[in-house]
Write a structure and sequence with these properties.
The protein is of the alpha+beta class. The chain contains 13 helices and five strands. It has a five-stranded antiparallel sheet. Strand 4 and strand 5 (249-258) form a beta hairpin. Helix 2 (41-48) packs across helix 4 (68-77) and helix 8 runs antiparallel to helix 10 (172-189). The protein is elongated, with a radius of gyration of 22 Å. It starts with a helix and ends with a helix.
Length: 282
């Protein structure tokens, strides 16, 4: 399921048109029955100030050489957010054909940083939501990554194929939607990555919920947020996360979890850290 940039471009634009109604963008809806939801192509072209033919050629991917002014106008008309706008530019530009390195390496210094994080769960995320490194607190909170085969140390594969993850996350549907949005953005950033393409194909075949979410064309960059865990040992834990991308390798990101001081979740996290330390001594 290698990313077809022309097909992806068309599907993305159609999905963004479908979420806009004429009245939302100042157009008059004359009540005529619409064959598809959202704006028609000619309405979008009118809003963007480009010819209908020009917009149709963009949506059909007939060429990947559109001017910056046209892409800017379409992005404004579709009310794209910054992540979606960058995605449009990425898809509407020719790909260099370069493939990413076959294997990502985590620097020793970054591994030491993970180990010195105290009670804070943290891990390093690589291309295609691969978990490249982790500390014992993250393993105690999420899963024992060391017990998994390397290919299975992957957040998308875990969230959709590991039944335990559906119990671990209080809002599993929200977590699943986030992971798919991260993976779609990552796939566009790395169109030549065969492992990402194989992962998407595997999840497409294995899980109907993944297929449904994938077809939504939602995009999200992992930055910060909150997840609530239902841990089998320490119970409910509310954790905020922050993501730090490596300046010299933006395909690697340190994800660190924090907790409000003196909260029940802080107590649970300290207990979890103690259990993790105890298990390591055994």
């Amino acid at each position: 399921m290698t990313l077809d940039r022309r097909a992806e471009l068309g599907e993305f634009l159609r999905s963004r048109r479908a979420r806009l109604r004429p009245e939302e963008v100042g157009l008059i809806d004359h009540g005529a029955r619409r064959r598809v939801p959202g704006l028609r192509r000619e309405e979008l072209a009118l809003l963007a100030g480009v010819s209908v033919d020009h917009y149709v050629r963009l949506e059909q991917g007939r060429t990947l050489h559109f001017s910056e002014s046209v892409l800017d106008a379409v992005a404004r008309a579709l009310r794209l957010n910054p992540v979606e706008r960058d995605h449009l530019y990425r898809l509407a530009r020719p790909w260099s054909g370069e493939e990413p390195p076959a294997e990502q390496q985590v620097r020793p210094g970054l591994r030491r940083l993970l180990d010195s994080a105290g009670d804070m769960p943290a891990y390093v995320l690589g291309r295609g939501t691969a978990v490249l490194a982790w500390n014992r607190q993250a393993a105690a909170l999420i899963t024992d990554f060391s017990a998994l085969a390397p290919r299975d140390r992957n957040k998308a594969r875990m969230v959709f194929l590991d039944e335990g993850m559906r119990e671990l996350y209080e809002d599993w549907p929200g977590k699943a939607a986030d992971v798919v949005a991260y993976l779609r953005l990552d796939a566009a950033r790395n169109p030549g990555d065969a492992e990402i393409a194989d992962l998407i194909d595997e999840l497409h075949q294995a899980d109907p919920e993944f297929r449904r979410l994938w077809d939504n064309h939602e995009l999200r960059d992992k930055t910060h947020g909150r997840y609530v865990y239902r841990h089998p040992v320490v119970g409910r834990v509310e954790l905020d996360f922050e993501t730090f991308r490596l300046p010299d390798d933006p395909d690697q990101a340190l994800v660190a979890y924090t907790v409000e001081a003196d909260s029940p979740s802080a107590t649970a996290l300290r207990l979890l850290a103690g259990l993790a330390a105890e298990s390591q001594r055994v």
